[in-house]
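Dear colleagues,

As part of the handover before I leave the project, I'm documenting each prediction I ran so the next person doesn't have to rerun anything. This entry is a single chain, and its sequence is reproduced below.
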Amino acid sequence: MHRRPAVLLALLALLFLPGSASAQDSLTLKALARIEQYERLEPGLEEGDAKTAALYLNQIAWAKKRLDAVSDQSEATWQDANRRYLALREKIEKKARGNAPPVTGDYDYAKLVQLNKEIANALSNFQLLSPKHLLDASRVRGIERDFLDFDSRLAEFPAEDENVKIVAGNLAGFHRLFDASMEKVRAGRDAKGGMDAKLEELRAKYESKNTPGNLVPPFEEQQLRAWALEMKRWREREIPADLAFLSEAANNPAVNQQAVNSLYHWLSGTWKRRLDEVEKQVRERVASDVQIGQEVAQFILDTDPANRSHVLRILSKGRFDENMQRLQDARHAVAMARVYDDAMGSPAVFGPTITDPSAPRPPKPDREAQAQLVERAIVHLEAVVEQA
């Protein structure tokens, strides 16, 4: 058997690198123009002129690459161009072999190289396709016709030859990629019904009216804990799970991708922002109640029983009951802040909403010190009354 230098094996592998091609159907006319050009040149090609034949084959491979990129391969213009390409290629390959009788154990190496180029081009074009393109039956039939052509031509070469094995491996890899892609498309079609139903469920689930509402003060422990559980349920379970489903649906070309994208942006954008706004309003109201209560408590503690003007500002007509109620509110505010801190897992303080679990949290206020300040103020107010 005729042996080719080992460097040729490397060249065959390099030929399999992906190329680039346009997917526009208008390329049929460009391909046809190239085919017509070499149909005119082919009669002048001499028998046995393998070098010129290889040049011609390389040029019409350019036309084949454009034909493979056409989206609708069922049109008569495309069918005619493809038929003429195949006929022209066969004529050129035949002239390249000349009148030399076939040699047992040997083959037309240039023809093998050309086949490998066409396989590489077809693979490159296939890799440019999105899964949605594989829903087009006419496009899929065109790819399957190419496989029949490649398989038939490869069968003409001795299977045990090392160079032939490389080309066969390239073609087998292309087959596997195509089969896996089509299996994914079929699985997507099978899953479409369930996914469409789930999309309808999500549309209803994430209607604006279902956004967790704001809390109306005064807050109570049971109310605040129930609200915190609802907020955490949406943030930690519902939204992440539904976004994961939408990401899966985005990979299924059989599903309405406009609906998927719309829902994904609604959940990850608008819906999350609304949750953040509600959380911020409640959190900062709790923090504000604590702040006001601490200021009231400090105001009472700053009252000097020996200073009559000081005493009057907290004990003049009706002021004692008013200030005692304000201190009771301050006590309740600290208690609700403790509930919030525990239920939400982050302190009730002023500032933007932090949703990233790995982001640093603001320091937690000393709730015990805040509570003690209020209790001291209550004792002090009662003491001032007794002395007055």
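The chain has a mean pLDDT of 83. The two ends are 121 Å apart (CA to CA).

All the best with the project,
I.
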